[in-house]
Amino acid sequence: MVVARLVELAEQRGEPRFRGTRELLRTWEDLGAKPRERALRLLCVLYEASPADLGLASSAPIPAPPPQELQPPDPVHEHAERTRRAINRTLAASTVSPGGLDLLDERLDDVRRLYVTAAPEQMIHHLLADLDDIQVLAAERQPAAAQARLSELTAIVSTLVADAWMKLGRLPGAQRWYGTARLAADDAGNSELRARVRVQAAMLPYYYGPLLAAANLAREARLLSRGRPGPTAVFAVAAEARSLARLGDRDGAQAAIRMAKDFFEHCQADQDQDDAWAFPERRLWLYLSGAHTALGETSQARQAQQQALALYPEGHTGIDPALLRLEEAMCLVIDHSPTEALQLTVHTYDRVPGPHRTAILGARARDVIAILPTPLRSGRPARQIAEMFALPAGQE
After folding, report:
1. Within its chain, how far is the Cα of 393 from the centroid?
2. Is the separation of the CB atoms in 31 and 82 below 8 Å?
3. Residue 13 near residue 44, CB atoms below 8 Å
4. Which of 315, 337, 341 has the alpha carbon at shortest distance from 326?
5. Measured between alpha carbons, how far is 115 from 166 in angstroms, rounded to an integer?
6. Can you tell me the distance from the alpha carbon of 349 to that of 249, in angstroms, rounded to the nearest whole number?
7. Which of 16, 56, 27 is nearest to 40 (CA)?
8. How far apart are CA 178 and CA 156, in angstroms?
9. Rounded distance, CA 78 to CA 94, Å?
10. Alpha-carbon distance 213 to 162, whole Å?
């Protein structure tokens, strides 16, 4: 890898081809041999370091001591010097600079904003391309701070890949990618990131089952957040609220709703509405809509739906507004207006752009059908809706 980069650098500088080998590099690193002037200059340019930084500086000649003062070679000292030089070379050989990491962060910011409105299948290609670039750097030895940042980026992008698979209904793939995201977050050692990945993973069992797993993941994320008000803590408690509500734990769900609102009020960070990694106000109301709907509190649910929908711009192409409309349809069923609920469900489907008509909408539409009165549940309109939302779920 280093030899290839030195060859490329010499070519870029219009210099004769660098003809070093890996074996030659080892003599510099392990045996203390000094590279020639041109090779040393290329190394300094490559690593943006001085010869001394690389442990390759030439020292001024030292007068030979009188014969009687000569000391026999010290194997320990020689071993120590070889080790020191190897460490210097390893530390100098990091392949990513802080500026390079900042550029990766900027690219990821753009992708996170695109994710809010782009179709899940389209986003997977963008995300995998970014992960390829991150992993090329992570596979090389990096300083601890750089390695931690790369693990954080890996966790974030892997979570978004998992989320996209989840929306498409490709459940085994989503499960595996959430597992990768958790490993990367744990490797980064960032407790908030560990919490965020877990609460994001709770969406998979929330929409596709089992619900108890969703509640447990949200609770784990809340505990990792340690009760500190912040976007991740709000997300965790709101996710726990709607999971508990669907499990029939009314007291637990209502307590979590109150906690989520309290945390949000005390949250200091401004949340970007168009960042997929943020948890802005409109997503809070989306989660509270789900909790109130499951509790049968249709008045509070409609208020949450209206507040959420008012925060989405006109023509927003993401999936969340459609999920809110389907919960509005569930409220209509609860309030004994099933025909109107079925009409709203069909209207919601018609308004969703084709690439966004994914399995997650089918999962929520089935929830609408499940609470219909028994005669209507097997009627023609319900069957048509079930067929309309029955998108093929991938197996990868």
Report:
1. 23
2. yes
3. no
4. 341
5. 14
6. 31
7. 56
8. 10
9. 25
10. 16
Residue with tokens 């899940």: 120
Tokens 């089935």 correspond to what residue? Answer: 366
Structure tokens, 242: 């709607």
What is the separation of C-alpha 116 from the centre of its chain, rounded to a whole number of angstroms?
Answer: 13
One-letter identity of residue 221: A
- In the block, tokens 């601890």 appear at 144
Contacts of 111 (CB under 8 A, 6+ apart): 123, 126, 127, 130, 157, 160
Which residues lie below 8 Å from residue 241, measured CB to CB, with a gap of 6+? 253, 256, 257, 259, 260, 287, 288, 291
Neighbouring C-beta atoms of residue 102, cutoff 10 Å:
11
What radius of gyration, in Å, describes the C-alpha atoms of the chain?
29
Q: What is the pLDDT along the chain (396 residues), one digit of tens a residue?
A: 567 777 777 777 777 777 776 666 666 665 556 777 778 888 777 766 777 666 666 544 434 444 444 455 566 666 666 666 665 555 555 566 677 778 788 888 888 999 999 999 889 988 988 888 888 788 776 778 888 899 999 999 999 999 999 999 999 999 999 999 999 999 998 999 999 999 999 999 999 999 999 999 999 999 998 877 789 999 999 999 999 999 999 999 999 999 999 999 887 556 678 889 999 999 999 999 999 999 999 999 999 999 999 999 887 778 999 999 999 999 999 999 999 999 999 999 989 988 888 999 999 998 999 999 988 888 888 888 888 777 443 333
Name the DSSP class of 354.
Answer: G
- Answer for the pair 333, 371: CB distance below 8 angstroms, yes or no: yes
Separation between Cα atoms, residue 359 and residue 365, nearest integer Å: 10
Alpha-carbon distance of 160 to 328, in angstroms, equals: 27
| Residue 94 DSSP SS3 | coil
Dihedral Cα 192, 195, 196, 199, nearest 10 deg: -160
Looking at the whole model, is its pTM more than 0.85? no
Residue with tokens 């498409």: 168
